[in-house]
Amino acid sequence: MKNYDVMVAGCGPAGICAAIQAGRMGAKTLLVEKNGIAGGTITAAGIAVPGLFDAFGEQLISGIGWELVAETLRAEGRELPDFSREMVDALWRYQVDINPFIFACIAEKALLECGVEIAYHTMLGKVVEFSDMWQVTLCAKDGLYDIAAAMLIDCTGDGNLTKLAGYQVMADTVCQPGSANVVLDGIDYEKIDRKALAAAFIQAEKAGMIHYKDLGWFRHLVEKGSFLFLERGGTNGNHIGFINAADSPQKSAMECAAHASVLRAYKFLKQQKGLEKISIRSFAPECGVRESRRICGEYIMTKEDYLSGRSFDDALCYSFYYVDIHDMEKGLILEDITPGTRPQVPRRIMIPQGASKLMAAGRIVSSDRPANSCLRIQASCMATGQAAGANVVCALRNHCPVADAPLDEVRAVLRQHGAIVPENQER
Ligand SMILES: Cc1cc2nc3c(=O)[nH]c(=O)nc-3n(C[C@H](O)[C@H](O)[C@H](O)COP(=O)(O)OP(=O)(O)OC[C@H]3O[C@@H](n4cnc5c(N)ncnc54)[C@H](O)[C@@H]3O)c2cc1C
After folding, report:
1. Secondary structure (3-state) at 327
2. Is residue 427 pLDDT above 70, yes or no?
3. Which residues of 268-292 are buried (b: 16+ CB within 10 A; e: fewer)?
4. Nearest to 12 by CA among 389, 418, 393, 382
5. Does the CA dihedral 402-423-372-255 come out positive or negative?
6. CA of 372: how far to CAs of 301, 367, 417, in Å?
7. What is the average per-residue pLDDT within 180-186?
8. Binding site membership of 393 for ligand 1 (Cβ less than 6 Å)
């Protein structure tokens, strides 16, 4: 049985940064990923707009995540954003648009360069905890095999590792819808007759051939011919709801619902004037999941903590976004963040309650729904990933539980590795 210091599950924005941080600290690190490419939602679901690294003229998140995004932009021959910029528009407009494939290649290269062993096409099977180590059964193409690891980090986006390890996870009864992303081609926007499109939609919906969620958010807007799916060229414009895609059966249900939705939209649009040449140039292999499970951590971060920029004595990084909940019935539930607020992320929301050798990072950190809608954003996931990576290795070095890793040491390591750490009183 192979032995590792750290095993990270999930190679999305959080897992990439967690594994690189652990690898750069010299820890023998295994990164397990069910897909065949790095990136998580960035590549699998085609959402390649990491946000937000800055807040009203100041960079709040740097470190490994920003290093990879900046390298991607340079490879694409593009300018880096000027973080002294004024933010006068909706905040989502300041996210960084990157090429997902280039990002994945750059992330993979960085992982390999610091000695991280990548196990693609591999899923978690069974997790058994012993007093000083974990035994994890992994499922590879040729069957099951066991590994041992001293520390685990759950970056699965769905809390799968935490649940398998026997720690508590939480889920709301109804979670935010997913979106199935494609890239549409051949649209002649000039030729679209909005009135005719709206009339055709009303008829097709009555006949059960289309649903307004296939094309946008609100029936009243779709009935006026405003189709988000069309306007955004197929990205982030449909809503696949009422499925909590945390496990394989529910993920399968979501994929099937997503495929059916895109097929309905495609067939409907292709029959309309000006859209006869519409085609699907490319598609994201997975339906994007906004929300599924979160860990029940040592603390549950609230919206009030987040929006007030509460100072935590165990803060390890910042996050920055506004409350942005996609609700199937009410549409977007938004709440602004006051300029000047710097939301801090405490270590205790990355530790499953009672765990000593397990941390979690990314969109599953312990938080209420509104706070989670801010924390789930990619730059924040990268920051929590890096923080968890540094914390578990410091815990290993000090032979202590993850909650007792000396904060001054963890913070010093994070700063050495380029991260921005809140300047709270060190404990
Ligand atoms: C439609 C949509 C739009 C969004 N828009 C934006 C946006 O504009 N800007 C922004 O910053 N964020 C956006 N987000 C949010 C953001 O993309 C996610 O919250 C973020 O990617 C979560 O990162 P993560 O690393 O926690 O998880 P993920 O990105 O989900 O990565 C998890 C990884 O773990 C792997 N995995 C899962 N389970 C297992 C297992 N059992 N074994 C092995 N591997 C496993 C997965 O294959 C995946 O690679 C959006 C999300 C969606 C769905």
Report:
1. strand
2. no
3. bbeebebbeebeeeeebebbbbbbb
4. 382
5. negative
6. 8, 5, 26
7. 96
8. no
Cβ–ligand 1 contact at 156 (below 6 Å): yes
Q: Find out whether 189 and 266 touch, Cβ atoms under 8 Å.
A: no
Q: Which residues contact 297 (CB under 8 A, 6 or more apart)?
A: 348, 349, 350, 351, 352, 353, 360, 365, 366
Sign of CA dihedral 46, 48, 52, 53: positive
Q: Does residue 123 line the site of ligand 1, with CB under 6 A?
A: yes
Q: Is 37 in the pocket of ligand 1 (CB under 6 A)?
A: no
- Domains of the chain, each with CATH number or no CATH: 2-173+291-416 (3.50.50.60), 182-283 (no CATH)
Closest CA to 30 of 188, 142, 140, 168: 140
The closest of 376, 276, 268, 366 to 325, measured between CA atoms, is: 376
Ligand 1 atom at minimal distance to the Cα of residue 33: 44
* Tens digit of each residue's pLDDT (9 = 90 or more) over 15-55: 999 999 999 999 999 999 999 999 999 999 999 999 999 99
User: What's the 12 CA to ligand 1 centre distance in angstroms?
Assistant: 6
List pLDDT tens digits, range 408-419: 999 999 999 999
Q: Is the CB of 45 under 6 A from ligand 1?
A: yes
Q: Which atom of ligand 1 is nearest to the CA of 32?
A: 43
User: What value does the mean pLDDT take over residues 328-335?
Assistant: 90
* CB of 290 shorter than 6 A to ligand 1: yes
Q: Which two tokens stand for residue 215?
A: 């094309």
Phi, psi dihedral angles at 146 (to 5 degrees): -105, 145
Report pTM. 0.98
